[in-house]
Amino acid sequence: MSQESAAEFPETSFEKAEIGSARPDMEPASGMPGLGPARQVNLRELVYDQLKDAFMVGYFAPGDYLNLRELADRFETSITPVREAVRRLVAEGALIDAPGRALRVPPLRRAHLIDLRQARIGIESMITEMAVARATPHDLDALGSILDGAVSKNPKTPIDELTSNRKFHFSLYGIGGSPTLFRFVESLWLQYGPFLNLIHYTIDPDIRGSHKDHRRIIAAARDGDALAAKQALVADISRSFDILDAYTQDSAD
Amino acid sequence: MSQESAAEFPETSFEKAEIGSARPDMEPASGMPGLGPARQVNLRELVYDQLKDAFMVGYFAPGDYLNLRELADRFETSITPVREAVRRLVAEGALIDAPGRALRVPPLRRAHLIDLRQARIGIESMITEMAVARATPHDLDALGSILDGAVSKNPKTPIDELTSNRKFHFSLYGIGGSPTLFRFVESLWLQYGPFLNLIHYTIDPDIRGSHKDHRRIIAAARDGDALAAKQALVADISRSFDILDAYTQDSAD
DNA sequence: TTCGTGTAAGATATCACAAATAACATATCA
DNA sequence: TGATATGTTATTTGTGATATCTTACACGAA
């Protein structure tokens, strides 16, 4: 963690849990069908979830180094759960094994950005098409109310924006009904997260356009127009990456 | 490991290493250009690679339970590296956390099969299209020689077939040049592997058709005909899954 | 049936080790 | 004499092994 932007981890755990529940479960709930999942939380998952949130809101910057003992101190656990959480992040591409056994957030590279963008467009288009095909009117109402809630919320911090943006997208993707693709999208967002750090929470100007795209997606879904929905989605994703264009002159590691 | 099909792990490590090297690296080689990367191999990766191979050739069956201590004994390590390797497999969807802290190969479910199939078709089509756009004549010659080598090899065990099939596909996908999508495909194949166990290495009759599809992909790539390449690919993937149709009456867990 | 108890297995903490890096000191050359 | 190179030591940090803890499940007695 060479260049952290904040002294503390963002406190988005509760939001995250809510988003996580949108994940389409392939397996039936392990507990009683009606009751909540009541999943037993172990330290490993606790640490992972917090790190995941940290990544998604751009807490870490590309190129940052992570330190197991430091993280363990921060989470007040031993390094064992941290190690396992970190290993999972490596598997998901959010971290890489750097030379010298070091753990590093992948540094900014133009090729990486291009790769991520095309993967996001391809996979999220697929899942959006599936969502349009499967969405019930009730689903779309729920999606709309996420947007409504986002605009009504008054103290709109940039993290609030990020969170509600994430909530919209993942709710949409949950409707798609593909746990496999859903997982891949999570991995993509995890990899994209650190780039948010570069723009230091100064994305407000573009949020409006994002909201418009989201509305267009819902409207297209109501018409069953998958193509229009995908076009709006691609516009939304492209905007996210275009903001980064100014930073894309491959910074020296 | 409730119902294992063999007493020992398949010895495909060397094949695997070769395939693994096809992964398109985003980072430049860390060492001297001419010299080998000399990457230090740790136990965690050793165990992971072997487990990965075991999954890919159908050593484990859907629904099997894994046991950390048993695996540690088998690999002659402590449970720590095994644990980390297993955790990675969980992250990749090859294993799931089952009730009671158990580790389980996902049981066969029709919905899962359908999901995997559409994800494979979608993502591998994308990457194939990219490969067709980027492939050099030399690349295509190399691909062709993989097929030639596969047919010439005389003692053709089913595992040989699987290995060369895998080699062809991943070489093709490596040409695509997308590390992100490449990783997703690996995850998909990892999830598909256990289904191979169900058909107990009796896939010979269909291998011929597979070879024909592979030839068609190469030919289409030579013509720059991405659509034709994708059609052949989809036919190939569909065949893989069609073989499983007979087993798809959702076995009781 | 119900409650308790034993056992098995994963989860966590801790210890020991090795590799890598940095800091410092010493040597060599211009 | 000053600057660069090289060797040595100390510290950091990930890795692997082991001990301990907790939980889930099975079995048996009341």
From TrEMBL, chains A, B:
Question: Where does the sequence pass through the membrane?
Answer: none
Q: Where is the HTH gntR-type domain?
A: 41-108
In its UniProt entry, the species of origin is given as Hoeflea poritis
Q: Disordered: where is this region? A: 1-35
Lineage of the native species? Bacteria, Pseudomonadati, Pseudomonadota, Alphaproteobacteria, Hyphomicrobiales
What is the protein named? GntR family transcriptional regulator
Keyword terms, alphabetized: DNA-binding, Transcription, Transcription regulation
- SUPFAM superfamilies associated with the record: GntR ligand-binding domain-like, Winged helix' DNA-binding domain
InterPro entries the UniProt entry points to = GntR_C (IPR011711), TF_FadR/GntR_C (IPR008920), Tscrpt_reg_HTH_GntR (IPR000524), WH-like_DNA-bd_sf (IPR036388), WH_DNA-bd_sf (IPR036390)
